Amino acid sequence: MTKKAVIVFSGGQDSTTCLIHALAHYDEVHCVTFDYGQRHRAEIEVAQQLATQIGVSAHKVLDASLLNELAISSLTRDNIPVPTTNSSGEKLPSTFVPGRNILFLTLASIYAYQVQAQTVITGVCETDFSGYPDCRDQFVKALNTAIESGMDYTLRFETPLMWLNKAEIWALADHYDKLEFVRDHTLTCYNGIKGNGCGSCDACHLRAKGLSEFLADKVGIRESLNRKMNLS
Question: Nearest CA to 54 among 161, 140, 175, 177?
Answer without folding.
Answer: 177
